[in-house]
Amino acid sequence: MAAFLPWTLLPSRLSAILPFCMSIVVQKYGGSSVADVARIKLVADRVMRTRRAGHDVCVVVSAMGDTTDELLGLAKQVSPNPDRRELDMLLTAGERISMALLSMAIRELGGDAISFTGSQSGIITNDRHVDARIIEVRPVRVQDELANGRIVVIAGYQGVSYRREVTTLGRGGSDTTAVAMAAALGAEYCEICSDVDGVYTADPRVVPAATRIGVLSYEETQELAESGAKVLNAQAVEFAKDKGIAIFARATSSRLPGADPSADGTVVRRYPPRQPGTVVGVASERDVLMISADPVAAERNVLVLRTEREGFSRAPGSPEGFALHDVLELLDEHRVAGKQLHVAGDRLTLVVSRENLHGEARLREALSASFGGAVRVDDALGAVSVVGAGINASFDNLRRGSRELTGVGAAIAAIATSSFRITWMIDRARLDDAVRILHRTFIETSGQA
């Protein structure tokens, strides 16, 4: 029966089985860290140093270098709209290669390592292919191997659905695998290792003045990830927040975490030492679509929106048209996950990330066939965001950022806010300029950089 306990109960099971075990550390290494044999050997050495420091070690790896993109490119050569199930079967091969090679490299250094796929390690997901979500972790085999003194190497980014189908977790899914496994194992901390030594106030390639952030809250990190920052995965941060797992974002080339991990990396935890209202970072996302209901078409009675059962439907006696839930139903049929949805009167706006949208041509055709010109897809925009706890306590930051953007001729197509974020939709060609302007406005001139 123990094999079927929910993952939230498994840490207590582990402590009962291993009352005298060493603390567990989960490490995740990104694609750039395992891009070739030489780098895999460096990772193996770092894993062995962690083991010799007195920890049980569970390692999660991404696919080597650009393997996932290359496999996706192969699929698109065969089919412009590849079947999502078959895509998952193909893409999971990349992480399997990495896990096996790293396990071999660790063994060459005298370590006792064993590799597991996502399903073998107990990652259970829903049945949504390409961007599945973890619903449970049953790491019984991982626990058993750790108890036997082995280093466990897990293929990230993948799992198995409750229907026993292979699934993938979307871009950055290896982060999610690592944090979910850390929570299930009761790990001391989870290291997310890449070629960057933490989370920066902006992309250093765009903003030379960007600096590393020592400590971030879960909420700030999640908003940065959702806004396009590439260091950590938003769903992974959600897991960490729920279970109180400390995340150390560090460079693969860095030393092992010391007494103060924020000194040479970024620590993500519950309460950062920072005043509310401070902008901590600027992020942008280039590859987005904005789907909107055309108000002109709405005035012609093509679109009628009202609130009723199932969300929105036609008002009694209204002219024949379509309702909002018809649009959302079509998006669900095409497995499209929206980032921001706004409805006001007859106006509908939905921002969609292209990262996990593998059937864009088919989606566009379906929207056109079903709704004609009443629904428009705009692919010329990008999103730029500032993030920080309490930055929307007043409208000062929103007004200030808008003034700076319009002052350099960056036309604002839309604005969205949350408790931790302000996002402006602007011309994609102006994104880098906008990031630099907002970083200078909110961070450099505030003395944070």
Key structural traits:
13 helices; about 450 residues; disordered N terminus; eight-stranded mixed beta sheet; alpha/beta; 22 strands; about 25% strand; four-stranded mixed beta sheet
Helix/strand-derived category reads alpha/beta
The radius of gyration computed from the alpha-carbon positions, rounded to a whole number of angstroms, is 23 Å
Which range does the strand content fall in?
15-25%
Shape: globular
Sheet with most strands: strand arrangement: 3-6-2-1-9-11-12-10
Helical amount: 25-40%
What is the count of β-strands? Answer: 22
Number of helices: 13
**Cα distance, first to last residue?**
54 Å
| Low-confidence region ranges | 1-20, 298-321
In round numbers, the mean pLDDT is 87
Instruction: Note the main sheet.
Output: 8 strands, mixed
Provide a descriptive summary of the structure in words.
This protein is α/β, with parallel strands linked by helices and 449 residues long. Helix content is 34%, strand content 24%. The protein is built from 13 helices and 22 strands. An 8-stranded mixed beta sheet has the order 3-6-2-1-9-11-12-10, sandwiched between helices. Strand 15 (307-308) and strand 16 (311-312) form a beta hairpin. Helix 2 (37-52) crosses helix 4 (84-108), helix 3 (67-78) packs antiparallel against helix 4 and helix 12 crosses helix 13. The chain is globular. The termini are far apart.
